[in-house]
Amino acid sequence: MTDQAYNFAYLDEQTKRMIRRAILKGVAVPGYQVPFASREMPMPYGWGTGGVQVTAACLTPDDVLKVIDQGADDTTNAVSIRKFFQRTADVAVTEATAEATMIQTRHRIPEQALTEDQILVYQVPIPEPLRFLEPRETETRKMHSLEEYGLMHVKLYEDIARHGSIATAYAYPVKVEGRYVMDPSPIPKFDNPKLSDCAALQLFGAGREQRIYALPPYTQVVSLDFDDHPFTASKAPHDCDLCGASESYLDEVIMDDAGGRMFVCSDTDFCASRRAEGHVGRLGAAEAGK
Amino acid sequence: MTTDTLTGGFTDPARQSAMAFRACLTALSRPGHIEVLSFATPPAPMSVAAGSLALTLLDGTTPVHLAGALDCAAVRDWLTFHTGAPLVGATEAVFAFGTFADLLPLDRFAIGTPEYPDRAATLVIDVPTLEPTGAHLTGPGIKDHAFLSLPATAPFQANRAIFPLGFDAFLTCGDRIAGLPRSTIVRDV
């Protein structure tokens, strides 16, 4: 069902042109945050208004859209954004990562490797990696222009001094093509290695903060670290309790008041397709029997 | 003003501009990759790809420069009617259209500022041939390396040397388009 009262993909053409120009400049300068005139969207800030605007500007009638929230296709945020584009763009949707041509994501990168025919759009709350270290936009802009990123290394060092290791577990800062330090949005640092040399185009939209940035395919992205404290992609030291996967990122689910818990893949499509192939985890058989 | 001025635009603006933008986006994010872009029919001598890009990205907020033979009444009227983009000189332009020879010298165009490198011009260069052979390209968007027939290499090497400043370029030939962002490292073969 399409709402004919709206333009294709909701936004008016003037707005889409403005966003499209910003996306192209973002692609030309990987990791640099391009300001854009973000619009009010029919959903609150924090629900992915930036990602929705980038998706709306890139979406074509032939696209197959997948929307995930923390890896899951069936959570409120993902369902509402998927329905929004079904209504306003009449676009095909899927939950299968391999079938999608455009994937909007909140805080995860799918487990399955992306291809050259796909675009990954991230929802970004705070695009400025230096913002919590320096609140003034005028100063952070100057720091980016001068490539002055010492403050970020001080922050990581203070992590080591206080906790013995770099305690930053998500939104872990990266350096793009040896130039711009970038916030990869609050993805777990487990996903950071997938940012680099990715076959898909990666676009980042921050609606409230009015910034768009991009990583073209095969861009070199390095997580910041120290020689004696190298970056490590961490995850819970368990296997998925449903599908038995040992290499996927896991969510911890509290089962009862007695301390019972289980670990499951955060990527629901990855987990479901593994179970369909017959893989069974510690609690997988019991789950199937319900 | 002739009737040609009023025709040749998108027939289904929302969907055609979406598909045209995806061609531009793919071209710029994968240098060396040639896309087909043919929705608009601009008056000669503007190419179909350049005209489609213009209708996709230009509006009243984007000053545009037409160089050489493109700076004729037919193209000026067509662009003004369909996009409303103000026509300006090379130094003020956000978008510039022309052949490589007509756009020279390229260092006239905006390259952005250190704080705002996005405030740089986009050049749409019409070339007689566009093939995935010739200059050797590496950089973001390119797996290992790619090749693209460039009209020259020196201006693009000078442009890369001032990264993250610099202009970005599209090359058009008939209904085909390729992208050359400032991040691409160009080498002679």
Polypeptide structure, described:
The complex is a heterodimer of chains A (290) and B (189). Chain A is of the alpha/beta class. In chain A, 28% of the residues lie in helices and 17% in strands. Chain A has 8 helices and 12 strands. In chain A, strands 1-9-8-5-4-2-3 form a 7-stranded mixed β-sheet. In chain A, strands 7-6-10 form a 3-stranded antiparallel β-sheet. In chain A, strands 11-12 form a two-stranded antiparallel ribbon. Chain A starts with 12 loop residues before the first helix and ends with a helix. Chain B is α/β, with parallel strands linked by helices and 189 residues long. Chain B has helices at 3-6, 13-29, 48-57, 73-83, 100-103, 154-161; strands at residues 35-36, 64-66, 95-99, 122-126, 135-138, 146-148, 168-173, 176-180, 185-187. In chain B, strands 1-8-7-4-3-2 form a 6-stranded mixed β-sheet. Chain B has a 3-stranded antiparallel β-sheet with strand order 6-5-9. In chain B, α2 crosses α3 (48-57). The chains are: A alpha/beta (290), B alpha/beta (189). The interface between A and B is large, with 46 and 39 residues.
> Main beta sheet of chain A, described?
7 strands, mixed
Which two protein chains have the largest interface (Cβ within 8 Å of the partner's Cβ), and how many residues from each?
A-B, 46 and 39 residues
The mean pLDDT of chain B is 96
- Specify the number of helices of chain A: 8
Q: Roughly what fraction of the amino acids of chain B lie in strands?
A: 15-25%
Number of domains of chain B: 1
Q: Beta fraction of the residues of chain A?
A: 15-25%
The helix/strand series of chain B, from N terminus to C terminus, equals: HHEHEHEHEEEHEEE
Distance between the termini of chain B: 47 Å
β-strand number of chain A: 12
